[in-house]
Write a structure and sequence with these properties.
The chain has 12 helices and 39 strands. It has 714 residues and is of the alpha+beta class. An 8-stranded mixed β-sheet has the order 32-33-35-34-36-37-38-39, sandwiched between helices. Strands 3, 4, 5, 6 and 7 form a 5-stranded antiparallel β-sheet that branches. It has a 4-stranded antiparallel β-sheet with strand order 8-9-10-11, with no helix packed on it.
Length: 714
């Protein structure tokens, strides 16, 4: 009887697999995407744009197309037999208490906590470290489905006032609200139309913030934004009376940020035309007659004022130091000619912060964190002993504090909080999460591989111990490669599902990022952008050559600029991977600068209007323009969101329309369009779990792999 039952189970599994293979071979009923005769001309070259109409996110035609695409996609995903098991396991893993490092404001310590499956983390507080925690702000009460999130917070210096920003549906447009921290009652009106900004308090009287005028024509979510403006809002007065301090038409095409030094003597203003390089200005608020003083008047380098001691300014900069340095100067003569090194440049990338009257230097060494503590004159006091090899952050605090709380994490080390005694340098465990997995079952290695031009590129590879290198391991290759962003070791709850089911996770630190300073970044920009794609392709080839995986078991993934990375890789090397996940990607490289804040990405990409040479280079790799007729592309699931006003969803819409028309073969090419969501920040946990379950299930299914969690349920 037992033998007969085993045969029946085996036959059921074979029949199930046969049905799955047959379903995969059937042609999917992709929605018909209408074409228009739009043609743009660049330097005498005509470029058709048949799906231009999809750029109109307000049209009923676009809405119907989105619904039709989602109907096909979710029908396909819901037919994957083990998807519910994947989702169930993700829910089990996410269901643990997560705390975030506390910060002191006034008499209270404030900290975020998530009980497990709450859509948004809750802001708690307690009076003193031994006080009883109480809910201070619960974003889950903003909207039942969790699609309104906290998107920025700021306390006045004495802790009596709290300003916070909210994002609706993931949009970059914010509303600002101020409450009295004792009574929790709102103070003044709700501010609107804040964008790319925090709140910088000046005493308890008011604060500085930045925003744009809403687009006068077109969509609020996709219309081009210009003339960022810095305002001062006096508490208790209407927003219409807010005074513009800086920006607007006098400083056009700039992203403007502001903050005050801890003693609130200086207002610091940064102005940038793109995501790297900024002007630097300062105003002495102790003198009512003072003017805004220019420290840096160009966009060639990155700078910020770290701290001050009276008139002495400490400035973090990469001027003359691609890996960054810390310099000092005086407010009476703050220009670069007067700068003197406090912490000179080294071979490793430097970040700086202050706490307890000390400087903390965070060095990135082959993408891993090392921290040193200095006095305010730049004298080394100690190397900070970290719990292991990984990533640490949080070495910041007020001048009068004697301790700080930092967070340490790695690929198999959940984010853990440590209390650090500034005087002794001793770290003690403060809070360690209890996650349903055993980190000792996994290992992480870092390898260095050669890219196409011979450049050595580092890559982290994470997998379960004892895995057999037979070329058949499902492998998830993820990277970014742009805008000076560094990918360091970090823990992902959802990634456990991939790893515990025999998957490999690989994360290369490709050019365009900031892992080796500005030179590494610049080597992946504009006319050198192909280096980024070559580095990523070489990472995949390394994994295949060394039998971690093979083409049939490789998935490539990335988001935003990383979505461009995947789009360019799959159009240049459609044979490299079995599965592709381009998320919220920049896919139309000829028109990206026409939407929202896209013009600010020109420092990394260049624009099609710059020159004939730049146009031809962009046209040569732009994913939308390089999908070829009759080519078999990987099984693809593009992901985007209807409220993404950072990288507008039209990029993804046009790419998938092209792909569905020209792709040949049985691999599905789908788009998953999230509703009431944006570029990623503030996404509810419930949506994160659903999306990740769909991604992993899609990958395994198209690799022909039944994950162990599904087999155990047979």
């Amino acid at each position: 009887m037992k033998h007969l039952f085993s045969i029946i189970c085996l036959m059921s599994l074979i029949i199930s697999c046969t049905k799955e293979e047959k379903a995969k071979e059937e042609s999917l009923p992709y929605p018909e995407t209408a074409k228009v005769d739009t043609v743009d001309v660049y330097f005498g070259t005509e470029v058709p744009d048949p799906y231009r109409w999809l750029e109109d996110d307000r049209s009923e035609q676009t809405a119907q197309w989105v619904k039709a695409q989602n109907d096909v996609t979710f029908s396909y995903l819901n037919d994957i037999p083990f998807k519910d098991k994947v989702k169930q396991r993700l829910e089990e893993l996410f269901n643990y208490e997560r705390l975030y490092a506390p910060n002191k404001h006034g008499e209270y310590y404030y900290f975020y906590k998530n009980d497990g499956l709450q859509n948004q983390s809750v802001l708690y507080r307690k009076k003193g470290m031994d006080g009883e925690p109480e809910v201070f702000i619960d974003p889950n009460t903003f909207k039942e489905d969790g699609t309104i999130s906290l998107a920025g917070t700021s306390f006045s210096k004495d802790g009596s006032l709290f300003g916070y920003l909210i994002s609706e549906g993931g949009s970059d447009w914010r509303k600002g609200i101020v409450i009295n921290t004792e009574t929790k009652e709102q103070v003044g009106d709700t501010l609107r139309d804040i964008k790319f900004s925090g709140l910088a308090w000046k005493g308890n009287e008011g604060f500085y913030y930045s925003s744009y005028d809403k687009p006068k024509s077109g969509s609020v979510l996709s219309g081009k934004t210009q003339h960022h403006k810095l305002y001062y809002h006096k508490l208790g007065t209407p927003q219409s009376e807010d005074k513009m301090i800086f920006g607007g038409e006098e400083q056009p095409r700039r992203y403007i940020g502001s903050y005050l030094t801890e003693d609130e003597r200086f207002l610091v203003i940064t102005a940038a035309q793109s995501t790297s390089g900024n002007e630097l200005y300062i105003k002495d608020l102790s003198d009512p007659e003072s003017k805004i003083v220019t420290i840096i008047d160009n966009f060639d380098n990155d700078h910020y004022v770290l701290a001050n001691e009276g008139p002495r300014l400490l400035i973090h900069t990469n001027l003359g130091a691609p890996n960054n340095r810390l310099v000092e100067t005086d407010i009476s003569n703050p220009a670069p000619v007067s700068w003197k090194d406090v912490i000179p440049e080294t071979e490793n990338v430097l970040s700086t912060s202050t706490a307890g009257g000390k400087i903390f230097a965070d060095y990135m060494v082959d993408a891993k964190t090392e921290v040193k503590q200095y006095d305010m004159s730049g004298k080394l006091e100690r190397n900070v002993e970290l719990p292991g090899i990984g990533t640490a952050w949080g070495f910041g605090g007020k001048k009068d504090e004697s301790e700080l709380y930092y967070t340490f994490t790695s690929f198999t080390y959940p984010s853990t909080i440590f209390k650090y005694d500034i005087a002794t340098g001793k770290s003690t465990l403060y809070e360690q999460p209890k996650v349903d997995f055993n980190p000792d079952d996994y290992e992480t290695k870092q390898v260095f591989y050669e890219s196409k031009d011979g450049t050595k590129v580092p890559m982290f590879i994470v997998y379960k111990k004892g895995i057999e290198l037979n070329g058949k391991n499902p492998t998830y290759l993820y990277s970014y490669g742009g805008f000076n962003v560094s990918l360091q070791p970090s823990f992902s709850t959802s990634r456990i599902v991939w790893l515990e089911n025999g998957g490999i996770y690989a994360q290369p630190n490709i050019r365009g990022g900031g892992e080796y300073g500005e030179k590494w970044h610049k080597a992946g920009t504009k006319m050198q952008k192909q280096n980024v794609f070559d580095d990523f392709i070489a990472a995949g080839e390394y994994l295949i050559k060394n039998k971690y995986t093979s083409n049939d078991y490789l998935a490539i993934a990335g988001g935003s600029n990383g979505g461009l990375l995947v789009g360019a890789t799959m159009t240049q090397r459609p044979d490299l991977a079995k599965v592709a996940f381009p998320a919220v990607g920049v896919m139309d490289m000829l028109r990206y600068n026409k939407f929202t804040a896209g013009a600010g990405w020109a420092s990394d990409y260049g624009t099609a209007e710059d020159s004939k040479e730049m146009f031809e280079y962009l046209h040569g790799y732009s994913p939308v323009h390089n999908v070829k007729e009759g080519v078999e592309y990987p099984a693809t699931m593009v992901t985007t969101a209807d409220h993404d006003d950072r990288v507008v969803p039209a990029h993804s819409f046009k790419f998938i329309a092209n792909l569905q028309q020209k792709h040949e073969g049985d691999n599905p090419v789908l788009i998953r369009i999230e509703t009431d969501a944006g570029h990623g920040a503030g996404t509810p946990i419930s949506k994160t779990i659903e999306q990740q379950a769909d991604i992993y299930s899609f990958a395994w299914y198209n690799m022909g792999v039944i994950p162990p969690l599904a087999k155990s349920a047979q």
